[in-house]
C-alpha cells in the first residue's frame, strides 16, 4: 500500500464525486419540483395565448420559473414590453447573490468558463451546489455542468408538456394553476427567510415591501409597485443593519 | 406555431436581464469586489422583491385593494404554513393550488 496507490484511490474517488455523471445524479432529488412547476408554467403560458414555439423559445432562452410565470401573466394582461422586462430584471436580481456566492469556487477558471457555469444557474441548482461546496470545500466544473444541464433539459421538457396539455385546459383558474405563481413566491420567500439567521430584520423588510408595493400599485396601476418596493425595502434593511 | 415579433422581443429582453445577473458576478468577482454597502443592500433584494410580489398577488384584485372575500388571501394561509413546516417548494406549490381550487369551489356555495 504505497503512496502511489493512495493517490490513485484519491483520484478515482475525486473522479467519481466530481464527475459530470455525478452532477446528473445529484440533480435527481430536485427533478420532481422542476417538473411540476415547469408543467404549471407551461399550462399558464399556453392559456396566456403563447404558441408552442414561443413557449419553447421562452424556456430555452429565459429559463427562469418566476420570470416565465410573470411574463405569461403580464403578456396576457397586455402589459408593455418595458414593464415586463423591468419586473423580470428585479425578480432575477437575486441571482446576483447566488452567482456571487459561487464565485470563490470558480476563481481558477477563465471569465468565459465562469460565464458557462453561471448561465444555467437557478435557485435549485444553487442550493445543490452550495451543499456540495459545504461538504467537499470545492465544486468541480464538470459536476456543475452535469447538474445544470440536467435541470435545464428537465425544465424545457416540463414546460412543453404543460404547454401541450394546456390546450385542453379551458379554465386553468378552476384547477388553481394561476395560484402556482403566488404559491411559489411564498415558498421562495419563506425558504430564503428561514435559511438566514436574521428573521426579525427580514420580517421588517418583507412587511415594508408588501406595504409599499400595495400602496404604490393602488395609486399608480402597473408594475411600478414591485420595483419601488424592492428599492426602498432593501435600502431600509441595509440602513437598519448599519445603524444597529 | 408562429413566433410574434413583440413576444420575441419580450423573450429576448427578459432573457438578457436574466442572463446578466447570473453570469456577471461569477465573471467579475474573481477580479474585483463590491463595496460593503452594496453587498448588504443586495442581501435584502431577494426578500424585498419576493415579499412585494406576494403582496401584490394577494392584496390586489384588478388594481384595487381587496381584504374581504379574497380567496387568494385565504389560500395563502395554508400555503405559508406548509412552506414554514415542510420547507419544500414543491409541497408549497401543490398545497397552494389545491387550497385555492377547494376555496373557489366552496365560495359560491357559502
From TrEMBL, chain A:
GO biological process: one example: L-valine transmembrane transport
Q: Does the keyword Transmembrane apply?
A: yes
Predominant location category = membrane
Q: Which domain of life is it from?
A: Bacteria
The record's Gene Ontology cellular component field reads:
plasma membrane
The answer to whether the entry has keyword Transmembrane helix is yes
Q: Where in the cell is it found?
A: Cell membrane
Q: What are the protein's UniProt keywords?
A: Cell membrane, Membrane, Transmembrane, Transmembrane helix, Transport
Q: How does it sit in the membrane?
A: Multi-pass membrane protein
The transmembrane residues are 146-169, 175-194, 201-220, 226-243
Q: Which family does it belong to?
A: Belongs to the AzlC family.
Name of the featured protein? Branched-chain amino acid ABC transporter permease
Q: Which organism's genome codes for this protein? A: Brevibacillus gelatini
UniProtKB/TrEMBL annotation, chain B:
Segments spanning the bilayer are 7-29, 41-60, 67-84, 90-107
Pfam families reported in the protein's UniProt record: AzlD (PF05437)
The entry's keywords: Membrane, Transmembrane, Transmembrane helix
The record's annotation in InterPro entries points to: Brnchd-chn_aa_trnsp_AzlD (IPR008407)
Q: What is this protein called?
A: AzlD domain-containing protein
